[in-house]
Structure formats: structure tokens, C-alpha cells
Amino acid sequence: MNTMLMRAGVTGFQLAQQDFLTVDPGDPCYSKVTYILLDPSCSGSGNEQLPRRGRGKRSR
Fold this sequence. Notes:
Elements: H1 2-7
Binding site for S-adenosyl-L-methionine: 19, 39
InterPro entries: MeTrfase_RsmB-F_NOP2_dom, SAM-dependent_MTases_sf
GO molecular function, one term: methyltransferase activity
């Protein structure tokens, strides 16, 4: 996931590899979280082949 986010140009992220159902949203460590990205297991997103910046084909 880290590699995929970096290839997509995402900055300012922190990975938390844990079960989302066990997260307490009231926990102070999440007080400044503004967005979350959930990647369900077996979603296949790790298999996505992103083009490298500047080398992708232009879409119409």
C-alpha cells in the first residue's frame, strides 16, 4: 500500500495496518485524522499496475 500511495503522488499519509473494526474513533491518537482510506483484504488494489508519472498513456 505504501508503494501504491507513493506512486500515486499521495503525501502526508500514515499507514495503520490493523483491523478497522477494532479502532476506537474516540482514541486521542485519531483526534486530528481528517480522511481515511480502507483497503479491504483481497480487494485486489495491491495488484493494480499504476503507470509511472509521465509515462502513462493519455486518456481521451
